[in-house]
Design brief:
Pfam families: FGGY_C (PF02782), FGGY_N (PF00370). It comes from Gracilibacillus salinarum. Belongs to the FGGY kinase family. Keywords: ATP-binding, Disulfide bond, Kinase, Nucleotide-binding, Rhamnose metabolism, Transferase. Helix 2 (about 105-110) crosses helix 4 and helix 15 (about 370-395) packs across helix 16. About 40% of the residues lie in helices and about 20% in strands. It folds into two domains: about 1-240, ATPase, nucleotide binding domain (Nucleotidyltransferase, domain 5, 2-Layer Sandwich); about 250-430 and about 450-490, Nucleotidyltransferase, domain 5 (2-Layer Sandwich), CATH 3.30.420.40. The radius of gyration is 22 Å and the shape is globular. The strands form five sheets. A seven-stranded mixed sheet has the order 15-16-14-13-17-18-19, sandwiched between helices. Strands 3-2-1-6-12-11 form a six-stranded mixed sheet. The chain has about 500 residues and is α/β, with parallel strands linked by helices. The protein contains 19 helices and 19 strands. The N and C termini lie far apart (about 50 Å).
């Protein structure tokens, strides 16, 4: 049975998954999972890229020691927008900044004095946000110009890691589409934007299509790990693009939700959808594994609950999904609502304090217990997804009849059921490891083992369990939605 390595590295943890394919069915096995958190240092947030690289090699060694000797290829997907800078000798110049770096907001506001948000959207089809690569670069220019002056090449995070393994410098299409530096519908860097912002227009490594072979693992890596050479493949390098590749979408009336720290919700489209309504609704157009696009919105996901867990752990309070579900059921329904995407929740010192402050300021009952906090977060998330569904239907002119949820957050079955309730649509949940499976799918297609994306999605249906959720208590949820809109101002 043939095997590939799929590295799925998110903004809170990473994992190596071994994908096997017998010609009829896909199999997935977790080899190693590791924490990945930004490091706060000298007032900035950085990614510890060398630690990530070291843990990736450890995972590969573990796989080889378990008897997985003949590996066909490896692929890497990560979160979007972030990058590393190389010198002219190929050395990494500094630890890459995290998109949560607080200076990015200031850099974005200054950059928008030179080119407007509307013009940027009209050119790129990408939502203007401080995390975007274009604004991170401008922030560097303003506040760390020496680093930018010494840089010879920019590699986006998954391609930086691929470079460390194979020595090739290129930026894959789906991850490149998150930068707000590609012209909509095209695959080459837009030098006009770079020049308008007085940024070097030859800094970014060339873009390359998904489903291509980047190179082969370096001999020094092979010797260290004790393995034969492995192809390094440009799968869908953006984790959301990989996740969508694995969701068994049935038709043009299906919505995708890639669910983790963030939730990316949208629909596949042939070409970028650029209009004033799309821009004002905060939607964006990013690439898919088959060279097309997805009209989506980046939304808050489990970040809110993850940060509350941090506070509870500091207080010595242990929690898990089962305990949280029990506490949720014990708390009164529809008591307090927040807009999960309010900027105050992006990176607060204390998430619970911010949520309580929001409720107090909007004259709602303030969540005091764990259960009330969990109930407030999960109901607010689900109601926001209902709001997004209505916007998607307006933008596409279609009645969207089902929602496909994939990713680690669907382990929270309560969230899946609440999403069905809040949207009034059937929810199909699965697969859980959607990004890793989509990563592997890209490799199997590139290797010629799977014909195309249509066949791959059918294989997902036949290989991994799916769970179905039907809407419940619709009258109560419609009433709650009206209150949610009133308290959030949406």
């Amino acid at each position: 049975m043939k095997k590939v390595w799929a590295f799925d590295i998110g903004a809170s943890n990473g994992r190596l998954m071994l994908s096997s394919f017998d010609g009829h069915k896909l199999y997935l096995e977790e080899i190693y999972r590791f924490s990945n958190q930004p490091v706060h240092l000298t007032g900035h947030y950085y990614w510890n890229i060398l630690s990530i690289f070291t843990k990736m090699k450890k995972a590969m060694q573990m796989s080889v020691q378990q008897g997985h000797q003949q590996i066909e290829s490896m692929g890497i997907d990560t979160w979007g927008a972030d990058f590393g800078l190389l010198s002219d000798t190929g050395e990494l110049l500094a630890n890459p900044y995290s998109y949560r770096n607080p200076l990015n907001d200031r850099g974005m506001n200054e950059a928008l004095q030179h080119i407007s948000a509307k013009e940027l959207f009209d050119i790129t089809g990408v939502e203007t946000a401080a995390i975007n690569t274009v604004f991170q670069l401008y922030t560097l220019k303003k506040y760390n110009p020496a680093l930018l002056d010494n840089a010879d090449m920019l590699l986006l995070t998954p391609n930086l890691l691929a470079y460390l393994f194979c020595g090739e410098k290129q930026n894959e299409f789906t991850i490149s589409s998150t930068t707000q530096l590609l012209r909509a519908g095209e695959t080459s860097w837009n030098k006009q934007i770079l020049q308008r912002l007085s940024l070097p227009d030859d800094l970014l490594a060339p873009t390359t299509a998904s489903l291509t072979i980047a190179g082969q693992s370096l001999s020094v890596i092979n010797r260290e790990i004790g393995m034969s050479p492995v192809k390094v493949i440009n799968t869908a390098s953006h984790d959301t693009a990989s996740a969508i590749a694995a969701l068994p979408l049935e038709d043009q009336y299906s919505v995708f939700m890639s669910c983790g720290t963030w939730v990316l919700m949208g629909v596949p489209v042939e070409r970028p959808v650029i209009s004033e309504d799309v821009m004002e609704s905060g939607f964006t157009n990013e690439g898919t594994i088959d060279g097309k696009y997805r009209l989506q919105k980046n939304n808050m996901g489990m970040w809110l609950l993850q940060q509350c867990r941090v506070s509870w752990e500091r207080e010595g309070i242990a929690t898990d999904f089962n305990k949280e579900n029990q506490l949720f059921e014990e708390a009164p329904a529809f008591r307090s609502f927040i807009n999960p995407d309010d900027q105050r929740f992006f990176n607060p010192l204390n998430m619970m304090t911010e949520i309580q402050g929001y409720c107090k300021e909007t004259q709602q009952p303030v969540p005091a217990t764990q259960g009330e906090m969990i109930r407030c977060i999960l109901e607010s998330l689900a109601l926001k997804y209902g709001w997004l569904l209505h916007r998607l239907e307006k933008l596409t002119g279609k009645y969207l009849k089902r929602i496909h949820m994939g990713g680690g957050a669907i382990r929270n079955q309560t969230l899946c059921q609440l999403t069905a309730n809040a949207t009034g649509r059937e929810v199909v949940a699965g697969p859980i490891e959607a990004s890793a499976i989509g990563n592997a799918i890209g490799q199997w297609i590139a290797l010629g083992e799977v014909k195309d994306l249509k066949q791959a999605r059918q294989l997902v249906r036949e290989s991994f369990p799916l769970q179905y959720y039907q809407p419940q208590d619709q009258i109560k949820w419609q009433e709650a939605y009206q209150r949610f809109e009133r308290y959030t101002g949406l």
